[in-house]
Amino acid sequence: QVQLVESGGGLVQAGGSLRLSCAASGGIFASRAMGWFRQAPGKERELVARIWSSGSTGYPESVKGRFTISRDNAKNAVYLQMNSLKAEDTAVYYCAASRPGAYELEYWGQGTQVTVSS
After folding, report:
1. Which residue stretches of the chain are H helix?
2. How many Å apart are CA 112 and CA 65, to the nearest integer?
3. In b/e form, how buried is each residue of 67-88, taking b as 16+ CB within 10 angstroms?
4. Taking a C-beta distance cutoff of 8 angstroms, is the pair 33, 51 a contact?
5. What is the pLDDT of residues 47-87, one digit of tens each?
6. Whether the Cβ atoms of residue 114 and residue 37 lie closer than 8 Å to each other
7. For residue 60, how far is the Cα from the chain centroid?
8. Strand locations in the chain (E)
């Protein structure tokens, strides 16, 4: 089973940038799909970025062009670069992983808080 630890959250002004990191340990990393979700108070958890083992990525319209997900298989890490942040991006951000070779993201980290002040 993989363990995921997020870091890099914090307080930033609107228009600013943050880079989140997720360190994975335990098991094979390169063949896992990885993703970032977020959950704001009173709202459902939302997928904001996904990267497959091939390196292909996907984003919802709400963050497309502002967020970039990347992975470093040598470091067992995945990153989320967030630019042009808005107040509505405020949420707890979670890293997620699939089983090796699988599609569904079913392993979760503890989350890191991102707060964007307007």
Report:
1. none
2. 22
3. bbbebeeeebbbbbebeebeee
4. yes
5. 999 999 999 999 999 999 999 999 999 999 999 999 999 99
6. no
7. 13
8. 3-7, 10-13, 18-25, 34-39, 46-51, 57-58, 67-72, 77-82, 91-98, 105-108, 112-117
